[in-house]
Amino acid sequence: MPAIVVVGGQWGDEGKGRIVDLLAQKANIVARYSAGNNAGHTIINELGEFKLHLVPAGIFYPDKLCLIGNGVVVDCAELLREIEDLEDRGVKVRGRLFLSDRAHVIMPWHRLIDELDEKLRGEGAIGTTGRGVGPAFVDKVARAGVRMADLIDHEALLSLLSFLVPYKNAVLEKLYDAPPVEIESVAKEYRDYGARLAPYVADTSALVHQALKTGDTVLLEGAQGSLLDLDSGTYEYVTSSVPSSLAAGAAIGMGIGPTQIQTVLGVFKAYNTRVGNGPMPTELLDETGRLLREGGPKPEYGSTTGRPRRCGWFDGVAARHSVRINGLSSAALTRLDVLDPLPVIKVCTTYRVHGKETESMPAAGAALAAAEPVYTELPGWQKPTAEVRKFQELPAEAQSYVGFIGDLLGVKICLVSVGPERDQAIKLERII
Fold first, then answer.
1. What is the pLDDT at residue 372?
2. pLDDT at 393 > cutoff 90
3. What is the pLDDT of residues 236-254, one digit of tens each?
4. Does the pLDDT of residue 264 top 70, yes or no?
5. What is the b/e burial string over 69-82, where b = at least 16 CB atoms within 10 angstroms of the residue's CB?
6. Mean of pLDDT over the chain
7. How far apart are CA 129 and CA 386, in angstroms?
């Protein structure tokens, strides 16, 4: 069976992790293909609550193989912490998790430059997580990166560091007026990482190709929202991930061809959230916005940074943009139950930009910042939905809301989640 891609349809935090966790039951391989530990998935299961930043969400099923692809940049310390935490809590990782030998590594100067550059930008700061992910991708493109294949080869690592450390120290000292890093300390730290991670390093592209050849189901896990994509998102408040956070990036990030992808599932929250800076036309700064943030079983705070998420009504213009740039074949709608208390629910269907109404998302940041949402009002249901497992048992108004969003997107909604746990889901169509 060809690969299935799961992507976020908004600015991230849509609940991709719990959807991947749910779908992984019927997959053979679950693979992460882009971004770094600036993204996070929260998984709640019988073992408790887990926050994963690099390990794929399929790790909780003992019969699944989990892969971290070449499109991911790896914070070695964070990955080792995740592995240790999972093993300590009864989840077997070794022998089931493999990391691409072509994946790039986050180095100490990447975190320093991330923080220092945000300070240098002042009011124009992007609002990064400060984990060094952006600078690591910059170095990947600049051909000044360290890959996992280098990390596990002591001589290759020393050779690279003999060039990279003086080069990066010149940047730190002359551009940022910051102290340099010491080559001996970096070499010792990363030699240790290489030794500890060596058993996990593999040619993950070959593993995926072999699985697809034998008819296995491969689930490709996106890490960030489509509206944060470097090319098609709300530039310049976007991620630096190369390949993209779109479905097209899944093929590049795992080393397979686009013809090997059969299904693209987009995950959308039943309202909108965003972490960090940048325009968000439907943002609510009133009591309704506070209710969306605090009213659900899992309050809206970033799983990576802990920052409060900006909340607002569902943005149909931005969502349709995501459908188009990903070529979505179906969609999942998450956190419907958060809307339970509201008497009236609004959905943005068009923007008004400088007096003109448009169904398209402007490319220019200034135009998007000036966009006024044009809303359609729908009746709320004001009944609890968290225990519902069949679509027909949802309140009529909730069914109408899901149908309205599906019509707005132009794709079938195949799954609705009504809570944070694995079994709190309503399946409308078969995905796998």
1. 97
2. yes
3. 899 888 888 899 999 999 9
4. yes
5. bbbbbbbbebbbeb
6. 94
7. 32
Q: What pLDDT digit, counting tens, does each position of 399-422 carry?
A: 999 999 999 999 999 999 998 888
- In this predicted structure, what is the pLDDT of residue 250? 95
Of 338, 336, 286, 293, whose CA–CA distance to 311 is shortest?
293
Residue 27's contacts (CB-CB under 8 Å, 6 or more residues apart) are: 4, 58, 64, 217, 218, 219, 432
Distance (Å, rounded) from C-alpha 71 to C-alpha 54? Answer: 12
The DSSP bridge partners found for residue 4 are 219, 263
Q: Is pLDDT of 56 > 90?
A: yes
Per-residue H/E/C for the chain: CCEEEEEECCCCCCCHHHHHHHHHHHCCEEEECCECCCCCEEEEECCEEEEECCCCHHHHCCCCEEEECCCEEECHHHHHHHHHHHHHCCCCCCCCEEEECCCEECCHHHHHHHHHHHHHHHHHCCCCCCCCHHHHHHHHHCCCCCEHHHHCCHHHHHHHHHHHHHHHHHHHHHCCCCCCCCHHHHHHHHHHHHHHHHHHEECHHHHHHHHHHCCCCEEEEEEEEHHHCCCCCCCCCCCCCCCCCCCHHHHHHHCCCHHHEEEEEEEEECCEEECCCCCCCCECCCHHHHHHHHCCCCCCECCCCCCECEEECEEHHHHHHHHHHHCCCEEEEECHHHHCCCCEEEEEEEEEECCEEECCCCCCHHHHHHCEEEEEEEECCCCCCCCCCCHHHCCHHHHHHHHHHHHHHCCEEEEEECCCCCCCEEECCCCC
User: pLDDT at residue 303 above 80?
Assistant: no
Digit-coded pLDDT (tens) for 89-132: 999 999 999 999 999 999 999 999 999 998 888 888 888 888 99
Cβ atoms of 304 and 393 within 8 Å: the answer is: no
Given this model, what pLDDT does residue 1 score?
65
Residue 343 structure tokens: 């008497």
For residues 164 and 146, the answer to whether their CB atoms sit within 8 Å is yes
Residue 356 has pLDDT above 80, yes or no: yes
Q: Residue 314: what are its φ and ψ, rounded to 5°?
A: -60, 130
Q: What is the pLDDT of residues 59-79, one digit of tens each?
A: 999 999 999 999 999 999 999
Distance CA 149, CA 103 (A): 8
Which residues participate in catalysis according to the annotation?
13, 41
CA distance 410 to 325: 13
Residue 100's nearest CA partner among 187, 208, 195 is 208
